[in-house]
Amino acid sequence: MSAADSRHAIGSVWKLEAAKVIGGLTRIVRDVSLAEDLAQEALVAALEKWPSTGIPPNPGAWLMATAKRRAIDHYRASERNGRKYEVLSRELQELERTPPDLVTALDDHIGDDVLRLIFTACHPVLSTEARAALTLRVVAGLTTDEIARAFLVPEPTIAQRIVRAKKTLAQKQVPFMVPRGLDLAARLSSVLEVIYLIFNEGYSATAGENLTRTSLIEEALRLGRILAELDPNESEVHGLLSLMKIQASRSHARVGASGEPILLMDQDRTLWDHALIRRGLDALDRANTLAQRRGPYRLQAEIAACHARAAAASETDWGRIVSLYNELAAVAPSPVVELNRAVAVSRYAGPHPALELLEPLRADPLFRNYHLLPSVRGDLLAMLGRHAEARVEFERAASMTQNEQERKLLQERALASANAEQSVQ
């Protein structure tokens, strides 16, 4: 195996094992920052040794044992941590006495540790941006460079967010645990929010030359699958996983040959990944069996399922979609939900009532620089034949977006409205 192939193979192993190793170490040392440092030292050791010895049968156990040795060295240097040294030494000795092929099977903490790590990285004491960066770093195993490129911000910015997030967790003495009772619902909401934020940034990139970022979609789906496996009885977890799978199924149909966006109603549905749709619908069925009351992710998954079940755009059940948006607006009211509800209403009842729904949003500070509001208004005005007004809205939307492909599409629609205006005159 060449050096490049070896590094690639080790990188793949690390992506699979990083969360387990960091989670297990955090359980022991009670410090996310130190746990990641120790895990990184183990990774460096693997990069030095595995190219010549080969990847061991149980790479996760090897990384954990190596990291624990580094931890023992760390605590040995300080007499104040003698008790922790004894605990680590005892655990390491037990690990070394256990046959390598049984280590993972006998480690009851693996699943709990990853779940605790996710909840710790997504603690509400951190900003949403910091939660996303820390989650991608310690749970998904991405480098700071990869995270920076994904969100199109300088690498030092991401590095600072991660460092500050770790310091905040330490200063606030955030416990390494899955919360219970009422705290669990609040913290779970934060976890789901971060995973969906990562997915949405991959699904519709806020800036850059490409409409999508496949790596972020894949990481969000992976995080969703991990969470669903570790917390299998939570309806909203399966609802989010269903939503992401159904939306991701459209990936190949959303982008044209030149990278241009293709709107949902214009997509070739034969290009949708129907196997992924089936898995998404299965996740939705699972969510529906777990709880009677529908939360925001289940409702959004139900909306996505309406589109997925329609063989053609003309067969879309817009009446049901409007009803689901009405329910979503009651469960999780937000200006963005209102904007999407207006789009559904326009398809079901026409542009006039939809425009009325948009009026209150025009004064909302959230939409001051949000390109989708003028974009939707442009659509509705064009449907009414008010092409001059539609052109202005499309031009405004194009000036707001930071994504090159979306800007091109909006400029084309502004031009089409201008041509339609001239033809009427």
TrEMBL record:
Residues 187-287 form the DUF6596 domain. Residues 21-80 form the RNA polymerase sigma-70 region domain. InterPro entries: DUF6596, RNA_pol_sigma-70_dom, RNA_pol_sigma70_r2, RNA_pol_sigma70_r4_t2, RNA_pol_sigma_r2, RNA_pol_sigma_r3/r4-like, WH-like_DNA-bd_sf. Transmembrane segments: none annotated. GO terms for molecular function: DNA binding; sigma factor activity. Residues 118-169 form the RNA polymerase sigma factor 70 region 4 type domain. GO terms for biological process: DNA-templated transcription initiation. This is RNA polymerase sigma factor. The lineage of its organism: Bacteria, Pseudomonadati, Acidobacteriota, Terriglobia, Terriglobales.
